[in-house]
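Re: the pair you flagged

First of the two:
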Amino acid sequence: MTTSTILLRLAETIESRKNADPSDSYVAKLLASGQDKILKKIAEEAAETIMASKDNNKSQIIYETADLWFHCLVMLTHHGLTPEDVLLELERREGVSGIEEKRSRSTH
């Protein structure tokens, strides 16, 4: 196993837990709780990531970013999306000026 495929492997695991018993699976419980609960967890993890960064605590930055990414993967699953969808968008933007990319959003 390589680290370059961890997002895809995690997404597969999250997908496989969608129909699990919520009393046995955190992911199943979170998905069963609905979008608002998922978004609340993302906001919480984003705030914790920000605080770790403000504290310049590298190990906490890594830990909290992992939590944030995990909960973003749960959100993607909730919407029937995958990390591949996001990675394709990042690939589309690669080499495009941030200013150009932002300008193109106003036409979408």
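Second of the two:
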Amino acid sequence: MSHLLDDAIASEPLGDGRHRVQVTADWHTANQTPNGGYILALLLNAVLQESKHPDALTIAITYFRPAVAGSAEIAVREVRVGRRVSTYDAVLTQGGKEVAHAVVSTHDWDAAGTFAHTPHAVPEAPRPEDCADVSALVPAGMVPILDRYSYRAPSVPGWLTGTPSGVTESLCWIRAADERPVDALLAGAMTDAFPPVTAEIGHLASATIQLTVHFRRRPEPGTVWALGHVVTRHVVAGYHDEDVELWDEQGRLLAQSRQLAILADG
């Protein structure tokens, strides 16, 4: 079965680490530019096709300029192949201009260590089926990226009802609209798929400058829903941070991210 994300990040290998891709407008944000998490998935998919290790461990992306719908090319370079961790960089270009640059570390979860210390548990939240259907509150087609996912929240966010809370923190379940199982590609995209919690202080439009994702496990087969804990701690001079944790329904941490973004209206 073909899924929306896989169709949107499909690449044509050209040799020597180069991949031709088609950027689609189906993942545009309210800014009418491609979502940063979608661009992350494009780059990560190309890297994983070149990697000597099978699994993503980290990805750090700097966005130079917005991509546009249409043809683009990704160039992947092998930086170092290690016994446990390998490193690559990847550059997305359009029209002869660099759009985004990623540094990616890969490894093999089957060969990872076993020691764990996890004192910070998953935040308490009702199961998705017991939450409010937030997706139903946004008209279809208004913001394309939001149509690619389904959202369930313990309560309706205040900004959606015209009563912003002033608290830049949220809990929200998320899944692909076509119920694609979660893997590193989707988890990475999901970390940037939540409406910015700065909406609770009157600023909805935001553009990512830098995004780093740490993948913390290989999701179990059949994982569809992920719980996102989203926090913005500081807004300074129109720039804001955003930390996201993604947890599965069994309370296991899937991924963590941090980004720096600029308020489009601030």
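The chain has a mean pLDDT of 96.

-B.
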